[in-house]
Amino acid sequence: MKFPILEDGALLPLVESFYTIQGEGFNTGKAAFFIRLGGCDVGCSWCDAKETWNPSVHPPVPIASIVQEAASYSAKSIVITGGEPLNYPLDKLCSLLKMEGMEIYLETSGSSPLSGVFDWICLSPKKRKPPVEGIHMLASELKVIIETDEDFVWAEENRKKVTSNCLLYLQPEWSRSSEMLPKIIEYVKANPNWNVSLQTHKYMNIP
Ligand code: SF4
Asked: How far does the centroid of ligand 1 lie from the alpha carbon of residue 45, in Å?
């Protein structure tokens, strides 16, 4: 898949932007402006954002207009997500957001090298396209989606690559939650370095 790199990241394919509450991981419960970029070639079968995959259907938007909208909200927290946002150079977007005094959180599978500067990096590695070399060391938070029992092994493989300061989360894949959440609970009780993450926005019926 080709990802359009336009004006070195001054234009980005925007799927949607919205002001909501972060539902997952360490920043759960915080008000934040979400920037969802189009394009992902990881192809998770359970992906709940499949509409993002093809970047060509999401028109490139000047980052200045995205930042202008972000600055209009009360909260100064930004979540950059996708799709896979690291398919694009994010340095220019991060610079503009920082000029507005924003805290920037990244949600990534780590399948492409890091660009941009972030206050928080949530690395959610996927077996179909594993993280690139070295990116684990930059993660603030490791969030592994648990769909099957084998994903606990995948979680531990990734845990070995992050720093000792990185926070560890296991999150049930939404459609498999009734089966996997009890297993996650028992796993976290036995391995308390890990924490449970839930997609609380889905319980709150918010984006
Ligand atoms: S990496 Fe994220 S956006 Fe891409 S297919 Fe997987 S869940 Fe969907």
From this structure: 9
Residues with CB under 6 A from ligand 1: 40, 42-44, 47, 49, 52, 82-84, 109, 126
CA 76 to chain centre: 18
**0.85 exceeded by pTM:** yes
- Give the domain range for residue 155: 7-204
Q: From the CA of 203, how far away is ligand 1's center (Å)? A: 21
Euclidean distance between CA atoms 52 and 83, whole angstroms: 5
Q: How many domains does the chain have?
A: 1
Give the DSSP letter of residue 6: B
**What CATH number corresponds to the domain at position 164?**
3.20.20.70
The pLDDT of 103-132, averaged and rounded, is 98
Residue 1 located in a structural domain? no
Give the pLDDT confidence of 148-158 residue by residue, as tens digits: 999 999 999 99
Domain assignment present for 152: yes
User: How many whole angstroms from 85 Cα to the centroid of ligand 1?
Assistant: 10
CA 199, 202, 206, 207: dihedral to nearest 10 degrees? 60
Question: Which atom of ligand 1 is least distant from the CA of 83?
Answer: 3
Residue 191 Cα to ligand 1 midpoint, Å, equals 27
CA distance 138 to 69: 28
